[in-house]
Predict the 3D structure of the following.
Amino acid sequence: MKKLKTDKVAYVYILPITICSLAFIYYCIFFTVYSSFTDWNGMSSQMNFIGLNNYTKLFQDKTFYIALKNNVIFFFGTVFVQAVLGFFLAVILKEKLPGTNVFKTIYFMPIAMATSVITGIFRILLNPTTGAINTFFRAIGLKALALSWLGNPRLSLFSVICVNIFQWMGFSMIIYYAALMALPEDVYESAKMEGAGFWRVLVSITFPMVKNTTSLLIVLGIVGSLKTFDIVKLLTNGGPGRSSTVLNTYLYEKAFTNFAAGEAASIGICILALAMLMSLIQLKIGKDK
Amino acid sequence: MHGRKIAVRKIFFYMVLVSCSIIWVAPILIAFDKSFMINGLKNYWFVLTYEKIKYYQVIANSMIVAVSCAFIVGLVTTLGGYAFSKMHFRGNNILYLMILSCLAVPVAAVTMPLFVTIKRMHLIDTRLGLIIPLVAFNAPMMLMMVKNYFDSIPNELLESAKIDGASSLSVYRHIMMPLSGPILANVLVLTFIYTWNDYLIPLLVVRTNPRYTVTLAAQYFMSTTFQSPTDVARIYAAMLLLTVPSIIVYLFSQKYLQAGITAGAVKG
């Protein structure tokens, strides 16, 4: 029986991160929980306890459900396309054709660029009259596709999703790429020996073997969708109307436009609850690997 | 027959790679091309000498904030990671799990309390007011990466040093740090890029133009000007000038950035 000695000095080492990360974030969370039960306006020091009023109001608020629905659509739209495209490109990159690194650099680059810069560029590209995208559609004779991408309530969320795919596809790609590189080569060899074609190997061997990666990307996609703020705020500001409002932009609006910090906090708690749940699932998937 | 099949497949692969590249490069190439519209290089000159938002100041602000964050995160996560990975103490697991669960906390969900906290610390419109929350929200993921990496360093290496009488600090400095080169590079690059590109925290903390970061400057240029052809050219020039530093960092460190992103996502 070996008894482990306690290193008291350990507390000194974890002190910095405990103060600057743990204490700070948990303080913000508890502050959010507390203020969600009050009528706080965010400016004054006056906080009156009003019980669950913010929550009952929130659960009757149509905009909240629109925002929630938009988050779900955003999640499905981005994660599915990013995963399929990312997986396929990762498979091709793994073949190590000449020039592979250049392509990888290109696909991954938007992740290194600020969302505000990317949206700045896309707002001009998507301009209905002068934007390059509609100019292109008109030039190839597809006038019907020259639409008001950000101004039409039926398209605004779709456009946000497309720009998000542009920025984050490289993420799925690189994760799949790492997973593919870790796969044992002999499985492929035996499949090839048995005469399985490229598509056959892809569908019945490669894809099932990276199943964990796919579920990881789905969970990360839900968390990412719950974190979505910049791209919507900068591209459409949630509009037109409520067509692209997501939970975070609605929260921001409640807090800084309507001065309803208590209500904003109740939205924050809903987001946090969902995010925590997802990260627990993520840790579980990580452990299973 | 077989060789021909492989050749056909290669052509198909290249077609996919090239057509995707066109989609991914086009926005930037168009921006570059259009940024010279009407006034040519003068558009860049306009941005560089713009009175209200001084380009060099914006870059300096973002650079100071991102570099400080990277170094602070690098320091606190290697210190913490060392303790969490190699030391036995009460509360080790629970504290680590508590920090890990911060991973999924969206900054946006706690905006108002965050803003008020910074305000109460009298740090609104200061660089420190940016650095503190950026470090707080970036450190948990980086800690996870560092701890996972330290877990793979064999304990025997530390034991022998301890028998020789080395203090924990000298183990940290002379064994852990020299071995943590690759993971430290990932942490530094990833933190730099994430903090450089952050928008929400500067949006909450920064009030005046001289404190603007790159992301706020980008928003300023795209929202204050109308989309006349001259404006468009200038906005494009501004966007490209604002993104050049992070692209340079990316091109020189993409190996670490990609490795960091993978390590941060895959391991739990």
